[in-house]
Design goal:
The protein is α+β, with helices and mostly antiparallel strands. It is 36% helix and 18% strand. The protein binds glycine and manganese (II) ion (2 copies).
């Protein structure tokens, strides 16, 4: 297990979570289950992001218990026991001893003993934090442990009476990335940027959308990022107007743009990049005109990512530029203020300008605090991804614009005095894209 994030950092995260828990409480968190793909074939295993954040422990069939003030150790892991015969078939298991030695847990037990041991740890604690309502099987399991305690009330046992969602405390921690996390995310961004460059070069040979997808996957894997952060979107021509297009089967056409939204996952951290470029390496006048509007909107939005600005400021900045651009090109009429007021841009831009990014591609963390947009603070990571999509059947605009879909997306970390773009290595000016593809 080589990780860019030190084991001490995982211990720090557990400590900070426990500092916020009520006294006399316990937190319980299960590892992600294995999932069947078909018959006896499983999907590649991916740890639950919350579990990953608190342990770095990559196996299924595990439960983390955080028990502030417990004499024999506050961070307790239940996991599979080592088993030479099983390991011969399925690979190395860390085991309870290994969990303590290698992962810095305070105490560990076989998962097969959890029903005997855990009720005793819960007993006497008044509150249980757990991912309430996320997984019906785990909800049920928690209640079974509570029932075990209730069955012993006549011997003086105290069952817990409060059940609280763990996410509120935990996701606030996850929203702020440490220097080590930012390092991993920057590396993921670099690998993904390289993949987009390679896909641009590959496009010149023509072929199908999946040929570009193959190039992306190849580049991710070559750099040790064995998974994507989400299914890659490779949309040629009007397919670029379908926001979640992942069919990726169509032939690439000379004269079309292709929109690629793809990012690798590294140590469970996501990257998320979109680039749009001409299959033949040269933008047509219409493609270029719309592209310059989206790029200007994206740069204006990135400019608005700074501490003190609220979450919606980058979106507002992008809307202003996109809407003015649509008016200037004749796709919308009237004044900017009226068009913004009426949301006249909506047929061309129907999504938000970004989202939090981290262990999940659409990462956790509140966007609003009470009635107000949240203020940006150093350590937050977000995407900036405006676009313009002219539907192929939009008869309200001149035919030459139809079927053009463009999005430009980068990953950005808020710094002390502004922001830093983590995905700069993927070219995005018309000149840089055309120069790369001509090379
Ligand atoms: N790739 C998902 C997104 O851009 O939000
Ligand atoms: Mn994306
Ligand atoms: Mn995104």
């Amino acid at each position: 297990m080589s990780s860019m994030i030190a084991m001490k950092e995982f211990a720090d995260r557990r400590r900070r979570l426990m500092e916020q828990m009520a006294p006399d409480s316990i937190a319980l968190l299960p590892a992600a289950p294995e999932r069947t793909r078909n018959r006896d074939v499983l999907h590649p295993y991916r740890q639950d992001s919350d579990f990953q954040y608190l342990t770095g422990f990559g196996e299924p069939d595990a439960v983390l218990a955080l028990i502030p003030g417990r004499e024999h150790g506050e961070a307790v892991l239940f996991c599979k026991e080592r088993n030479p015969e099983k390991e011969l078939w399925d690979g190395f298991l860390v085991g309870p001893e290994g969990a303590i030695e290698r992962y810095g847990l305070d105490d560990a037990f076989p998962i097969s003993d959890i029903d005997d041991i855990l009720p005793g740890m819960i007993e006497g604690r008044s509150r249980i934090y757990f991912p309430l309502g996320r997984d019906a099987a785990f909800d049920h399991q928690v209640m079974e442990w509570v029932k075990t305690i209730r069955s012993k009330v006549r011997t003086g046992a105290h069952p817990p009476g409060e059940f609280v969602a763990l996410e509120h405390l935990l996701h606030e921690l996850r929203l702020f990335k440490s220097p080590a996390e930012i390092k991993v995310m920057a590396r993921a961004g670099q690998i993904s940027a390289q993949a987009h460059r390679n896909a641009m070069l590959r496009a010149r040979q023509g072929g199908h959308e999946y040929n570009l997808e193959a190039t992306l996957l190849h580049t991710f894997m070559e750099h040790g990022a064995r998974s994507t952060a989400y299914p890659s979107i490779v949309g040629g021509g009007a397919n670029g107007c379908i926001l979640h297009y992942i069919v990726n089967q169509a032939p690439l056409k000379d004269g079309d743009l292709v929109l690629i939204d793809a990012g690798c996952e590294l140590e469970c951290y996501a990257s998320d990049i979109t680039r749009t470029f001409p299959v033949n390496g040269r933008f047509s006048p219409e493609q270029r005109a719309l592209y310059e509007v989206v790029l200007a909107a994206q740069l204006a939005a990135i400019e608005a990512v700074r501490p003190g600005n609220h979450w919606n400021r980058p979106h507002e900045a992008a809307l202003n530029v996109l809407t003015q651009g649509l008016i200037d090109l004749g796709l919308l009429s009237g004044t900017l203020d009226d068009a913004l007021e009426e949301e006249a841009y909506r047929p061309f831009f129907m999504h938000r300008t970004g989202h939090w990014l981290g262990l999940d591609v659409h990462d956790v963390g509140d966007y609003r605090v009470g009635d107000a947009w949240r203020e940006l603070e150093p350590g937050m990571v977000l995407t900036v991804e405006p676009g313009l999509y002219v539907a192929p059947d939009n008869t309200r605009v001149d035919a030459r614009w139809r079927g053009i879909g463009i999005r430009i997306e980068d990953d950005v970390v808020v710094t002390k005095d502004g922001c830093r773009v983590l995905t700069d290595d993927a070219p995005k000016t018309v000149a840089d894209i055309e120069a790369l593809m001509a090379g």
